[in-house]
Write a structure and sequence with these properties.
The protein is of the alpha/beta class and 119 residues long. The protein has 5 helices and 5 strands; from the N terminus they run E-H-E-H-E-H-E-H-E-H. It holds the Pfam family Response_reg.
Length: 119
């Protein structure tokens, strides 16, 4: 079973993604901010991480920087899912090592297809 970590502080997004990915046979882990995500990653090696940028505690950019420093997570795919839509935000996310940069609002169905295309 593929594993996915969803990191977002918006409960509605987390609930809809959790439901959809479980329905698509993923084991789902949830974090409400970057700090919580990094704690989960100490014990879990997901295939994909869906990561918001704007979150309390540790933002998505800083979280991704920490993920990229961990050799255990080098094969993990990271998708930014965010409302930050300026060109410089997108460039920053991709330059930090994100595999995809998806803007909110988004299609859950399309996101599932994008995740499956990465793994």
């Amino acid at each position: 079973m593929k594993k996915i970590l969803i990191v977002d502080d918006e409960p509605n997004i987390v609930m809809s993604l959790e439901y959809t990915f479980k329905k698509n046979n993923f084991e789902v882990f949830i974090a409400r901010d970057g700090q919580e995500a990094l704690e989960i990653l100490k014990n879990q090696l997901p295939d994909v991480i869906i990561l918001d940028v704007m979150m309390p505690m540790v933002d998505g950019y800083a979280t991704l920087e920490q993920i990229k420093k961990d050799p255990r997570l080098q094969n993990c795919r990271v998708i930014f899912l965010t409302a930050k839509n300026k060109e410089k935000d997108i460039e920053k996310g991709l330059s930090l090592g994100a595999n995809l940069y998806v803007l909110k609002p988004f299609s859950v169905k399309k996101l599932v297809e994008q995740v499956q295309g990465l793994i």
